[in-house]
Structure formats: structure tokens, C-alpha cells
Amino acid sequence: MTAYPDALAEARSPRRAQVLNLHATVEALVTVALLAVLVAAPALFSRATINDLGQAVCLGLFAISFNILFKYSGLLSFGHAAFFGFAAYTQALLLQSFAGLPVPLLILATGLSASVLGYLIGQICVRRSGAYFSMTTLAIAALFYAVAFKWHAATGGTDGLDSFMPSSLMLLPRWHLDSPGISETYLLVLAILIPVAVAAWALLELTPFGSAVVAVKHNEKRAAFLGYDTHRVKLANFTLAAGLAGVAGALWAIDNSFVSTDSIDLSFSTTVVIIAFLGGSVWFWGPLIGAVVYIAASDWLSALTPHWQIWLGLAFILVVLFAPGGITGLVKSLWRLALRPQAAANV
Amino acid sequence: MFKTLLLGATAGIGLAALQPARAAAKDPIVFVAAIIQSGPFKVTDAQNLAGVQFAVQQINKAGGVNGHPIKLDIIDTELNAATTKRKVTDAVLNDNAKAIIGASGSDVVNALVAVGQKYHVPVVAFAGEADDMTGARFQPALFRVASNTSMHASAIVYAMQHAYPQVKKVFLLNEDYAFGHESETGFKTALKGIDPSVEVVGSVFHPRGTADFSPYLQQIQASGADFVLTADWGADLIKLLNQGSSFGLKPRIGGTFLADPEILKGVGNAAIGDIGSDVYQPTIDSAENKAFVATWHNAYANTPIPWPTASVGKSYISTELAAIAMNQAGSTDFAKVEKVLEGLHYASIAGPLVVRACDHQVQIGQPTGLVIATNNNPYPFPFIGPALIAPLNVIAVAPTDTGNPRCAAAPNG
Predict the structure, then answer these.
(1) Which of B76, B82, B179 sits opposite A256 (nearest CB)?
(2) N or C: which end of chain B has fewer CB within 10 A?
(3) What is the pLDDT of residues B148-177, one digit of tens each?
(4) Interface test with A, best of B80, B179, B185 (most A CBs within 10 A)
(5) Architecture of the domain delimited by B2-147+286-361
(6) Do B89 and A48 touch (CB under 8 A)?
(7) CA distance A162 to chain B (A)
(8) Are B397 and B138 in contact (CB under 8 A)?
(9) Does ipTM come in above 0.90?
(10) A18: pLDDT confidence band, cut at 50, 70 and 90?
């Protein structure tokens, strides 16, 4: 019977606060280091590596957007590629029609349109949770894929869309990027991606909105008793995730210079789940690391054996079984283990 | 004089003998082969990979490209355009690849072209038949050996007219996606051009991956059609042929992708009398092809591809074309190679071909054939018989009809 007050006392102890502060500081430092490495990558790595990193960071943002639903709302979407693909096609069409407008504005417009779509679809999806939510998102994604596949006039069908990239990208009025190379395109992608992802992180980690989302995830009934409109909270997070997936899709279209049905098909919705779990869903930036590892591992394995998907699948199973927090979760656990003797010594 | 000639001849023979060794000594020139090597479509590209590898082997034996051996980078496209783009870009940047040979899937070909355009590397396509790739959406990096949808449809219609001159009513059955729709248009245009007296009595699109063709077979039977034209492929085509046979379908079938042993081995006698066509057939009656078939069979007799196939032929020609152009250009520089390729003509294993300058579409008379019983065939199942060549003047799309602005400006191609 005394366990509860003991636990409470432990939770409120200055030592625990100290440890938590240390964790937060380390996390912040690691985040800054991660983003700094990404920004400095063109100076550190070959153009081929930057080419791979370009796709990896777009996939990473997509996986982060998936994880926003999974980590903060406990919603496992099997149809997240619908927003990503919708945005990729929208971005391609916008670039085709409004090449004279600043690219960041077009990306913003694409992200907003994906948010609006998320808001509308979320009205249906977030009314259910668990398997029902997953199946609803899956069905909607299948619908979007069918549209992309069949609406040849708008999407190019199986041929996809290409030749939409203007030779000169307007960044701001009077500031153009002529025939951008790999590094320039990569930095442009990062210039949009980092602020957007940091804003989403701040919204979820530092504001009452984030606390409300987590409260609804942990105990929806209690959150409702406390006065939260739980449906609207989940819907808002769904909209945010859709918008972020939209930005990722827009950046993907720019980075690849073409869009095909691969960016909206059901297997892509599965890939993002694998990436998020591989990187680790417990840390906001984990999926970004997961994307880098996924791209590197799949390229390496596919060069070694045509049966590389078996090995990747096996790795995924091992991660789920023995390191459910993914790569970053594993590192976090090791870090805590390393800290434990030191904490004990301080007592 | 005799001594001089003898010395000259000896030197010549010596140089020729040294050529392969010299090719091996120089730095290799990298060609990228974009091939599906994993997933359910892996089988589709096994023939293409074999064709490219055989071509590289033969070219290297003959001295390589400008004395350099070709090194082949094989990348797994995973039938995914974005993955293909990433891997091929890496190959171009890391290995300085000078030619890209590929690829199954028109979106994957588009991804290759995006890389080719950006890094000035020619893309020689053995697949990807959408008309507008060399038409309205033309991009100079692409050189297409594969037929386009219109040429392919015309070749089938030409073969139908020759094998079954009594046919007056046809039924069009195609998959319900972009390629199926484009093929339907191609068949209709070809019928109008080749035999306007033939009436289209029905046209239906079915979903890809159809399990049960009986509703469509009933429609065909009810329409009174004498012949069925289809651009179905893979499992759909096998099911259509098998179920058509079980159903007792009377009209024979002309299939864009029927001339493939992977299809025909799964169908057996049900395909006898049907028509197939592609840029290459092992049954082409020419000295070049006979020599090629013999050399291939010697090398591959105990493999799953004992005889060259349509895919083998196309991927072989694609690789050969890139090498010939580089040899003639004396360089791997894109501008020089492009200049040579535009209008390049030579006697290929599939017959005399020319790369049309305005749209980079290879122009070649297309072999067609009836599926015949296994007696005189290389395979233990019915296969395409002696090739009937659909002449280029019948199947070619006029430059002004391509939708390519360069062709509109150069009506003679």
C-alpha cells in the first residue's frame, strides 16, 4: 500500500528532475547535432551520398508525420501515403502551372491543401481507433491510389508526371536558382524541411496542444471529463500529420523531378511504417534516422542479393521483437544504462 | 610488294588479336542496366538482363567501345521509379556511367530519362511503349528500341490480316489503365489504316489482375467477332488464353505480348493459331539472326533461356546500339553520341533498323508470327512460328503524327 506514495515521492525527487533535465539536454544536443550534420552534409559527403540523403530526408519527414499520429495519438495509419502522394502530384501540377511563383509558396500551398484534405478525411477516420482506424485509412489510401492510377489526364497514370521542374526555380522574388544541382536541391529541401519539422516538434512537445494530444491518447475518457473535445484534438493532430506528409510529398516531387504512382501506392504506406519503427517511434526525430538507415540498408542489401527484402523484413522483425523502440530507442536504453551507475554513485 | 602485303596482313591480324586484350587493359566504360531483380516481377526482367549481359560479353570480345571494355552496373529497379532514379544517379555519379539501358515500366523509364537528361547520359530503352514518350513528352536523352504502342498494334493487325484474311469483325479487350486505353486507340487506328473494312464489334476494358474472364468471353462470343485484339500481359494474358480455350472461344487472339515463352509455356495448345509480335523474334529468317540464335544457344543451352526471346533481342539491340554509336562517335560524350545516333542505321539481328532523328524512335519492320504446334519449335510447347515481317511503311507512325514538335518541324524524320 505504500508503493504509490513512494513512487510519487521518487517522481518528485530532485534527483529525478536532474536526470530528466540531463536527458532533455542530451536530446536537444543530439537533435541539433543531427540537423547540423544534415545541413553540413554537402561539404562532408560525395554527391552520390547527397543524392541518397535527399530522398532519405523527404522520406524521413514523411515518417515523422506518420509518427506524429502513432506516437502522440496512438493511431496506426496504414494509408498515410494518400497525403504524401496527393501532395507530390499537387506540387508537380502547381510547378507546371505556376512556375513563376516562389517555390516555398507553392510548397506551403501544397502542405495546406494536404492539411485540408487531412481535415476532411480525418472527420471520418478519427471517429474510430485501433484496427478500425487503420482499416479506414487503408481503404481511403486505396481509393487515392485508384484515382492516381486511372486519372491519366491529371496524373499521367502509370507513366507518372515528369518534365514539370522549371529550369530556374524562384525562391523569392528576384532570387532564382538556375538549373539546381544535387547539393542545391538538397539544401532547398532542408531549408523547408527543418523549420517545418522543428515547428511541428515545438507544437507537440512545448505547447498545451501537445499535452492535450498525449492526454487524449493515454486516457480519452479522462481527457473528455477534463473538458477536452477529444474528437477535435485527434482531428487537429490528424490534420497536422497530413499537412506534414504533404510538405514531405511536395519536397519529394522537387527532389525527384517526377512523380509516379509509387508515391501513393499501398506498399509505400507500409514502407513508412517500417521506416518509423526502424528509426524508433519513441523519439520525434527517430523516423528521420530510420529513413537514412532504410535507404542505406536497402541499397546495400539489394546490391548484394536479389532476396534483400527477406533480410530487411527479418531485420524489421528483430527490431520489433528485441528493440521495440527502434534504433533510437536502443541508443536511449544504452544511454540510460550508462547513466545508471553514475546516478547510483550520486545517491 | 608481296612482302609488304604479308607484313601488313600479319600486323592487322596481330592488332585484331590484341584488340580484346587491349580493351581489357584500358579503363572500362560503365553501362548501367536497370533491371527488376527482386519482387514478383523479377521473372519479367530475367530475359532482359540476359540479353544485356550477352551483348556486353560479345562487344567486349570484339574489342569493347573504342578499345575500352564495358563494365556493367546492374541495378535493381524494384519496379519503383524513385528507387530507380536514386540508384541510377548513384551509378552515374560514382562510376561515371556512360549509357543507361532499361527498363520495364514506363514510369521507371521516365525516371531513367530524368537522370539521363540531367547528367547527359543516353538512355536506350528496351521497354516502355507509351507513344508520347517519344512524342509530345520527347526528351533528347531517350532512344527507344522498344516499339511504341501504335507500331506494335499495327504489326498485330497486319499479321491478323495476313493470317486470317476472312476476319471482318474484331473485338478489343484491354486492361483498364493508361496502356490498355492507349493500345485500344492504337488498334482502332491500325484497323482504319490497314483494313478499313474490318469492323470493331465491341471494346471492353477489364481490371488488371482479373481472375475470371468469363463475362468478357461471353461478350466476345455474343458480339459475333472473328478475332480478338488485346494488349493484356502477364497473368491476365495467360488467364485470358487458358479460360478462352476452356470456354470454347472460337475467335483467335492477337496479343501485343503473346510472343513470349514465359506466356506461352503456361498456355500450351490453347494458344495455337494466335498471333504475337515484337521488335525481335528468334524465328526471323536472316543470316544475322541465325548466327545470333546459334551463338546464344551454344552459350545458354542449359539455362532457363535456352533460345533468345523477344525481350532478349530488344535488350541485346539496345546495348549494341549504345556501343555502336560510341564507337562511331569515337567518344562517350553525350552530344557526339547523340549526333551519331540520330539517323544511325545498321543491320541488327532483328533486321535493318534506323534511329529516327526527330524522335529517337527506332524504326524497324516488326516480326510477327502465328503460334504453331511444338514440332518445329525450339521449345517443348507451342511457340511462334516463322516470322512474317510487318513492313515499316505499314506500321511506322508518320513524324507529323507523333505529337513531337521536332518531328513536326522535320516531316521527313
Answers:
(1) B82
(2) N
(3) 999 999 999 999 999 999 999 999 999 988
(4) B80
(5) 3-Layer(aba) Sandwich (3.40)
(6) yes
(7) 7
(8) no
(9) no
(10) confident
Write the residue in A51, A149, A258 that is nearest to B177 by C-beta: A149
Q: Where are the domains of chain B?
A: 2-147+286-361, 150-277+366-395
Does the CB of B120 have a partner CB in chain A at under 8 Å?
Answer: no
Torsional sign, CA B170, B176, B181, B183: negative
Contact criterion met (CB below 8 Å) for B60 and B70: yes
Rounded to the nearest integer, the mean pLDDT of chain B is: 90
Q: What is the pLDDT of residues A47-58, one digit of tens each?
A: 999 999 999 999
What confidence tens digit (pLDDT) does each residue in B293-341 have? 999 999 999 998 999 999 999 999 999 999 999 999 999 999 999 999 9
**Domain B150-277+366-395 is classified in which CATH homologous superfamily?**
Response regulator (3.40.50.2300)
Domain residue limits, chain A = 18-346
φ and ψ at B171, to 5 degrees?
-120, 135
| Angle, helix A286-304 to helix B81-95, in steps of 10 degrees | 70
- Which whole number is the average pLDDT over A265-275? 92
* Long-range contacts (CB closer than 8 Å, 24 or more residues apart) made by B12-16: none
Judge: B178–A156 Cβ closer than 8 Å, yes or no: yes
Q: What pLDDT score does A312 carry? A: 85
The answer on pLDDT for B376 being more than 90 is no
Assess B130–A contact: CB distance below 8 Å, yes or no.
yes
Contact across the interface for A302 and B38, Cβ inside 8 Å: yes
Tell me which amino acid residue A228 is. Y
Of A106-110, B148-152, B261-265, the least confident: B261-265
pLDDT at site A9: 66
Give B 149-178 residues with CB within 8 A of chain A. Answer: 176-178
CB contact under 8 A, A55 and B94: no
Mean pLDDT, rounded, for A129-150: 93
Please judge whether B90 and A152 are an interchain contact, meaning their C-beta atoms are less than 8 angstroms apart: no
Phi, psi of B136 (to 5 degrees): -65, -30
The residue with cell 528509426 is A279
Q: What is the distance between the alpha carbons of residues B314 and B16, in angstroms, rounded to a whole number? A: 28
- Nearest by CB: B139 against A52, A163, A295: A163
The contacts of residue B341 (CB under 8 Å, 6+ apart) are: B122, B143, B321, B325, B355, B360
CATH architecture of A18-346: Orthogonal Bundle (1.10)
Instruction: Please say if the pLDDT value at position B11 is more than 60.
Output: no
Report the predicted TM-score, pTM, of the whole model to 2 decimal places.
0.85
C-alpha distances in Å from residue A262, one per residue of A60, A61, B108: 17, 17, 10
